[in-house]
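Need a sequence for this fold. Nothing fancy.
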């Protein structure tokens, strides 16, 4: 029982970090928000939390595109799309990743 609770606490912590990153980005703290998104990705990989991993990668990919670093965004977005999930938990993020990679959602295609 303790292991299950720890796993849930870890996922909650990762998702809280993700939401804090979004808040910082909304407030214009791009560097701090980017650093937290990178933390989210690392935590989600370690905890095998595919939902948080996809969310973190797509959000970071979008940020990188918006800040002129599309070449850095492409591998993140491609990795996000490679994660197979058949639920609505990541559908919006995966749609956004496809749009960014195709050039419909930003400047990635020009990179």
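Here you go.
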């Amino acid at each position: 029982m303790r292991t299950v609770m720890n796993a849930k606490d870890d996922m909650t912590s990762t998702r809280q970090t993700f939401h804090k990153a979004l808040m910082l980005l909304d407030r214009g703290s791009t560097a701090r928000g980017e650093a937290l998104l990178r933390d989210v990705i690392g935590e989600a990989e370690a905890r095998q939390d595919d939902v948080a991993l996809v969310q973190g990668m797509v959000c970071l990919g979008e940020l990188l595109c918006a800040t002129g670093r599309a070449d850095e965004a492409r591998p993140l977005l491609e990795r996000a799309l490679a994660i197979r999930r058949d639920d609505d938990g990541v559908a919006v993020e995966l749609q956004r990743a496809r749009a960014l990679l195709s050039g419909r959602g930003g400047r990635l295609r020009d990179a």
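For context: Residues 2-26 form the longest helix (25 residues).
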